[in-house]
Amino acid sequence: MDYKKEYSRWLEKATADKDLQVELKAMDDAAVESAFYRDLAFGTAGLRGVIGAGTNRMNVYTVAKATQGLSNYLKKSEAKPSVVIGYDSRIKSDVFAKVTAGVLADNGIKVYLWPELLPVPTVSFATRFLKASAGIMITASHNPSKYNGYKVYGPDGCQMTTEAADAVLAEIENIDCFAPVINYEPDVEYIKDEVLDAFITEVKRQSVLFGDDIDRNVAIVYSPLNGTGLKPVTRTLKECGFTNITVVKGQENPDGNFPTCPYPNPEIREAMQLGLDYCRKVGADLMLATDPDADRCGIAVKDGDDYRLMTGNEVGVLLLDYICSQRTKHGKMPFDPVLVKSVVSMDLADRVAASYGVKTVNVLTGFKFIGEQIAKLEAQGKADSYIFGFEESYGYLTGTYVRDKDAVDAALMICEMFAYYKTRGISLIDKLNEIFDKFGFCFNITYSYEFEGSAGMEKMKGIMADFQKGADSFGGLKVKELLDYSKGLDGLPKSDVLKFVLEKDCSVVVRPSGTEPKLKNYISVSAETEEKAHETEQKIAADLKARVK
After folding, report:
1. Do 214 and 131 share a structural domain?
2. Which domain holds residue 506?
3. Which pLDDT score, from 0 to 100, does residue 495 have?
4. 271 and 261 in contact (C-beta within 8 Å)?
């Protein structure tokens, strides 16, 4: 692409959004190259990028172009397609939702639009409930405020398959970004309250108490991190009896600038800090935080006089053990139960699952692969076999009513689990230590390295190529096996992921992020004690850092 020529064309034609003209005229050559050196990539996760002017940015033109490509694909697939659209609190999310709806309507496609911002799982649910051809969620999940995105679901409510994404991309590549009509007042059908009611009902059905008593008066501090979770999370908890809820005021209302948490990710302590301050003030038992599109849920629990943030892996293992123990206790375990988790999530979960006779299916990173496994079970008439799915990045799902991670479900199940154990004098930390005593201590940590711009992408490719050559050891532990998922392993689609299986039940996974310019390294360590695990992890991390740098 001749980025200078394309820049000149945008100066002339990008007039549908005044903000873009201001930005275009202020660009220096470096900014022009960054914004125009490529088209924003469309894949199985749709689009995601920095908001702004240019072909490599999220704006009304790149959104309209992607939507026209999707429209072409849908019209070739069926006679009367329909699409569900939702959006979150991010900057321009409502604008992008309207532009998306306008392009679809201009193509004669029926549009169902959520009338207010809501979590991403409600789009997956509504797509299934309304039997739509596709779903679109305008969101950049947990990314910083400068990002936005465009996530596409198939008719099953699962994120778009590789084959479908490739077909849509082929359509997109033949479209001039200025060809689709930009319409901010499209003709749509707003989704009725009964659909949200049905979603909440399904979430509440996930309970595994089966009549067991719990004290629901636990003191909960909740933060929606200025996103979409406030109404559905608090409504669900209150309808299930959890009414002692304090909402973090500075993070209560939707705000795409995320003023108190520039990186609105519950994995990050800085995003949780305001909520932790609230916990200390009110003496809360439990803190919950959902990311802006409410598909991820992070927690903190009392630990002596302080509060401890629990990792996604720890919560995933705790929920797995709780669900399995409750189902087993009450005779509710299916004949052939299945856990589905990502390859980068804690291997300890496999051992916990096996102790309950649960089969573990490991899939690639991205919850759509967990959704695909649910679909496979459903096709075999075994949807009830699925009992839990999780990934280390705070994503959980206990049922089959949606095909994406659901923080509304996670919030309810975490509160139920917490209250169940608290009623019996057991903390979540006690329970986790009990699991470690039984199966051995396990520790996971993720390191991310940023590589911005076109030069950064090339550097990441070079680093991945170097890792593909293999390694003898990491941190003094021998590499037993290298699993190269780019070749397509275990029936999974090809993906740029490498897993080094080390001795002593340790492992290293290396992959580029699918949504940010980052190279991610996942280290999993098993050891006799926590101290030994951390010592081993530091040695592995040092070797990885030297190789990446």
Report:
1. no
2. 441-548
3. 86
4. yes
The mean pLDDT value for 232-251 works out to 98
| 293 burial type by CB count under 10 A (0-12 exposed, 13-18 middle, 19+ buried) | buried
Does one domain contain both 434 and 477?
no
pLDDT tens per residue across span 305-352: 899 999 999 999 999 999 999 999 999 999 999 999 998 898 899 999
Secondary structure letter of residue 223 according to DSSP: E
Q: Are residues 453 and 368 in the same domain?
A: no
Nearest alpha-carbon partner for 415 in 406, 428, 424: 428
Residue corresponding to tokens 């999707």: 70
Give the pLDDT mean for 519-543: 91
Q: Are 47 and 58 in contact (CB under 8 A)?
A: yes
Residue from 82, 93, 141, 345 carrying the catalytic annotation? 141
Query: Considering its fold, how many domains does the chain have in total?
Result: 4
Q: Which residue type occupies 344?
A: V
Q: DSSP of 467-512, one letter per residue?
A: HHT--SEETTEEEEEEEEGGG--TTPPP-S-EEEEETTTEEEEEEE
**Does 141 participate in catalysis according to the annotation?**
yes
431: part of which helix (H) or strand (E)?
helix 428-439
